[in-house]
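Postdoc handover notes: sequence design on the structure in folder B. Input tokens:
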């Protein structure tokens, strides 16, 4: 009897040891899959903070920033992203924990009196945890995969935000450069008007018009300086730069427009198949369904332990046997847990359907904005700005020939400044629309929060712990 009991206990320990031996941490902490997902959607992978990453950041900052270089710096250096990568390690720890059996419980009791003593010994193993371990581990594997999708979504969103901030900063810098030139020109005109009015060649009215135009341009220059500074600081924050590194160098102009806009075959199908938030929503529903299966499996029996025990008394031979501990469902039949899981599953299904509807609508909206901004920017480049330049040249010729007044010349100058600024803004809006369309097709919704990992459902490991 003693040999058989010890053999059974040894067998259970061996099985538990084999199962838990498979539950180890991955060498990359789940980062390789995240990098693969982001590389296909944002152009670059991710890595945890290291000296090599900092050296790469320093190398990229030596020259004028490019859209791709800016995104690469943000993915290497943004501290909030590093927080998300740390959260990925937490999810992996939960996965590893789900594949490990609870430690056995050892109990020893001793009674003594007169000349006799009695000793009880027992070793208990969590048999219910052992039987449900494969299902719990499968659930946590899906949870970990969902965490990887959510981390990838944060990476792609950061890349989109960084590209958008880059184009805003370059456009603001370009506008500032033009407004400085305009301010210098109006300052010279105002000084000339003052001299000519002083010698009686200009009227007080013409001088006042020239002066107010210069003041207005100066005010626009101040706003342009503030806009350029704010846009630059936003870009610096997204890249996670500080100190000397925050003194970034931007190009003088926005990238040129492409020859023609992209025309994907079926943007809705691409969004449903590739968007990370859609994939995360689908995985959440699958995860919830599996969790519902575990809830039903442990509805009546959530505590089942078996173990070896022996008993020895003074003057008697030792007695060997086994002990089974079972939680009886006398008061809690598990109906509330099951109903709760079913309600969460229905919620997950509706959320997945809603995410799919939003994805189809958003990708149509962003593609329409992309095409519209391309056409507007192209018209400014090919028609409006050249025509405005021709009009200015003609007005200047007529002014020199004393055929038009100074007021008409100033009116044309105001219109030219407005057209140039509008052309810069249209080109900026096109590149921002391009980045947002890419995110709408492959990432998610720019205005939505990330889908929680299985919402308010308790993890199987936590549920098992609470049951005890």
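Designed sequence:
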């Amino acid at each position: 009897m003693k040999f058989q009991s010890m053999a059974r206990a040894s067998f259970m320990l061996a099985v538990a040891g084999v199962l838990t031996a498979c539950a180890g941490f991955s060498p990359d902490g789940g980062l390789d899959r995240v990098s693969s997902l982001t590389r296909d959607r944002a152009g670059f992978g991710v890595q945890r903070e290291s000296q090599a990453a900092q050296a790469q950041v320093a190398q990229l900052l030596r020259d004028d920033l490019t859209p791709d270089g800016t995104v690469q710096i943000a993915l290497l250096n943004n501290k909030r992203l590093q927080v998300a990568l740390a959260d990925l390690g937490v999810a992996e720890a939960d996965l590893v924990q789900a594949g490990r059996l609870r430690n056995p419980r050892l109990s020893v009791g001793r009674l003594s009196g007169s000349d006799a003593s009695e000793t009880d010994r027992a070793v208990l193993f969590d048999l219910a945890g052992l039987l449900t371990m494969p299902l719990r581990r499968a659930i946590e594997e899906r949870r970990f995969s969902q965490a990887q999708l959510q981390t990838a979504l944060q990476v792609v969103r950061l890349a989109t935000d960084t590209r958008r901030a880059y184009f805003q900063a370059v456009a603001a810098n370009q506008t500032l450069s033009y407004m400085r030139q305009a301010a210098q020109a109006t300052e010279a005109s105002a000084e000339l008007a003052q001299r000519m009015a002083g010698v009686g060649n200009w009227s007080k009215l013409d001088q006042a018009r020239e002066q107010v135009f210069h003041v207005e341009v100066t005010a626009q220059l101040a706003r342009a300086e503030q806009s350029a500074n704010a846009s630059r600081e936003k870009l610096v924050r997204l890249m996670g730069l500080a100190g000397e590194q925050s003194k970034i160098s931007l190009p003088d102009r926005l990238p040129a427009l492409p020859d023609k806009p992209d025309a994907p075959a079926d943007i809705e199908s691409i969004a449903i198949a590739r968007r990370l938030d859609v994939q995360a929503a689908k995985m959440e529903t699958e995860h919830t369904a599996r969790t519902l299966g575990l809830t039903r499996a442990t509805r009546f029996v959530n505590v089942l332990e078996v173990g070896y025990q022996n008993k020895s008394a003074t003057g008697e031979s030792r007695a060997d046997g086994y002990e089974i501990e079972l939680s009886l469902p006398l008061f809690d039949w598990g109906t509330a847990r099951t109903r709760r899981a079913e309600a969460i599953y229905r919620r997950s299904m509706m959320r997945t359907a809603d995410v799919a509807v939003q994805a189809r609508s958003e990708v149509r909206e962003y593609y329409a904005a992309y095409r519209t901004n391309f056409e507007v920017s192209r018209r400014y480049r090919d028609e409006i700005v050249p025509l405005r330049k021709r009009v200015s040249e003609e007005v200047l010729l007529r002014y020199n020939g004393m055929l038009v007044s100074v007021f008409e010349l100033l009116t044309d100058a105001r219109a030219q400044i407005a057209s140039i600024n509008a052309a810069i803004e249209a080109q900026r809006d096109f590149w921002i629309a391009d980045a947002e369309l890419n995110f709408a097709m492959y990432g998610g919704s720019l205005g939505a929060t990330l889908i929680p990992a299985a919402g308010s459902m308790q993890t199987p490991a936590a549920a098992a712990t609470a049951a005890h």
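Context for whoever picks this up: The first strand starts at residue 105 and ends at 113. Don't rerun without checking with the PI first.
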